[in-house]
Structures
1.
Amino acid sequence: MSERISVGIIMDGNRRWAKARGLPTLKGHEQGAEKVREVAEWAIEEQVSHLYLYAFSTENWKRSEEEVSYLLKLLERAFAERMKDIEELGVRIRIIGEREQFSTSFQEKMLEVEERSKDNTALTLVFCLSYGSRREIVSAVSRLPEQSTYTEDDISAALWTAGMPDPDLIIRPGGEKRLSNFLLWQGAYAELFFTDTLWPDFTKEEFSRILEEYRARERRHGA
């Protein structure tokens, strides 16, 4: 059996997927959301312990009012209607980010889903919502007790990901080659994989191929 690993995915390319098909941008987000249950299944098969999905960044709030409103409704509907299907796979669901930016009803739904799935062990699926790594680090530092020096462990323990493993690899579909403020602290030594495939078109075969290549790499914690 393969060693269990942790994976981060930047879910990129939804809008371009829709544009290429002559569809409204919002349809691309809907198609991208449909991919979540599939990738959770693939992750379980591939012995992934934690899967971090960059679903809604702090920068996403700057998009048009129409798009932000649609994304929020899509997220709330997903948590209300689809999470139980994912939980039935044995998945524990966790959420990191600025929860206070969302409606009270959505925050309550997040807590409900986390509580309901807390004993599941097949996979921990971490949704990064209103998430930005710089904001996370600033928040962590602001919560540290006043003292003259701090260790890396001190900061790690104050991050939203406290108690969870750092990603072993980060995958970005969509053709862009940057991290876009995603798990910057935690991904310091992660292997990076970029693919031109747009997120809604991402396949099990490509996911497996990336993990196979990752497992063949010699990881080096340094330059």
2.
Amino acid sequence: MASIASRLRASDEPRRLDRHSILGVLVREMINFTAYWKSTTFSSSVEPTIYLLAFGFGLGALVDQIDGHTYVEFVGTGTIATAVMMSSVFSAMFGAFFKAEHQHTYDALLAAPVDTEEIVTAEALWIGLRASVYGCIPMFVAMIFGLDPAWGMFAVPVIAFFTGFGWACFGLIFAAILNSVDHFSYVTSTIVTPLFLCAGTFFPISTLPSAIEFAANFNPVYHCVELVRGFIFNTQSFGDVAFHVSVIWAFSFICWRIAIRCQTKNLIH
């Protein structure tokens, strides 16, 4: 009887990364998203589209081709990674900060059988799902202006999801460790902007100084750009794809674990 009772008590205890808890947080996010999806969709889709049109047709008038592709095609595939990063890191950073500090949403969730590991995981999964949609918008715009359809485009939402998951966790880290929204500008200026500019989005990284070109190999935005272009243009080998995927997965996993640790310290006093 004692062993049966112990097994029953163990089954009642919440499990680590309990799928029901994660699903509950996801459903909550989906329901809340219906109240502000228009503004979020507008900001997440218009900015990369402006980059595409400004650089694609502005510099495109001066640049003939890059690696055998028109400049609009080159920039159009590159801004997909930009859209993924922008729609993920800022949504996570600002959203998590206000939920924790002003709305006390996470306090309410922690009162239920949900822990910070499940909150972080659910938040990142939800933002990753959104990124898989928003990341495709520049691709559709580029198709209007000459990018040829390709079977590899079906891989873009998958690439955007995993990359968006990592960037969401990245944003959750700083939402936990910074104590003011004003401090987010430091992250934007010193980390996000340099990574986005040195990712091969608007020009090949081979044109950069050798030190910066080497550092780009550690830039997840660059690997997202290379994966997207490789699938759409069918120009990469299996080894190249495996390398880029490995870097993105490593980035996502490391940021996920750090985000859980930081959010736990921030929320559990």
